Amino acid sequence: MEESVIQIRNLSKSFGSKKVLTGLSLDIKKGSIFGLLGPNGAGKTTTLRMLSCLLAPTSGEIQILGYQVGPQNEQIRKRIGAVTESPGVYGKLSIWDNLEFFASCYGMSNLKADRRIEDLLKYFELWEKKDQLAGRLSKGQKQKVAIIRALLPDPDILLLDEATANLDPVSIRKLKDLVLQSAKQGKTIIYCSHTLSEIDELCTEFAIIKGELLTHTTPAQFRHQWSTYNVILHVADEHEKAARLLSSLPLVQSFERRGEQFHLKVEDPANANPSLLRHLIESKIPVVFLEQSSNSLEDAYLSMLQGGAHA
User: Fold this and answer.
1) CATH architecture for residues 4-217
2) N or C: which end of the chain has fewer CB within 10 A?
3) 229-294 — its CATH code?
């Protein structure tokens, strides 16, 4: 059984009379890239701030790498790196001086810090700007400095809150590659993003929250459960006849006609499609193609939110 390095139990957070998060419980496994999704104001950033030991829970417990958030924050902070909403760089210091300062906060030796800073600056193409004041950087460059700061101690846990914001496509690819490589090395990443294609590409599992946990699943399972249609049927003619046939077949849960195509929902396309094709041929309906559709995570996510259901 895979080891859980983060355990969240009945976590709640209120600001005065305003409840932001209620009763959140999650287990996050070592080496996983765990996505955190939800609409604006759902409590994602609040959750990450509590995991970062920057914000105390109102109630509930968090354990990270065996340490308890609250009484053992100091031990946790040495093992995590976090990219928050704001880059949080010191504008009157150079890039190099910013990173040297943060390395000292992690207790890194000068030699180790200098080598790590140089490697990361070169990786994110900031080496030539190392002596430039951070206050003169573009938003994307400040974001890269924030990412490097989080990576400095080679943390066991990496918390990324909209980390690709303001980054150019090349830097986004570099960050994604680094996240994937880190997970292969046994690091654990919590990846918070509004870009569902990133969650789909990177995450082994994810949770959707909206003040509470709505679902905890994998991208494949979620698409299967919430995609409106998962099969496309294209017929050359006999469209009305095809519609009548589809309406009569128990294996077709629902369908919609779009021109010469029918978009269908079936339980399991791999098992249903051969039977469906046989019925079409026996009814002398000319099939151009019948295939499983590759619905996006975004389509499934919107379907769930519009349905207003818990999973």
Assistant:
1) 3-Layer(aba) Sandwich (3.40)
2) N
3) 3.30.70.100
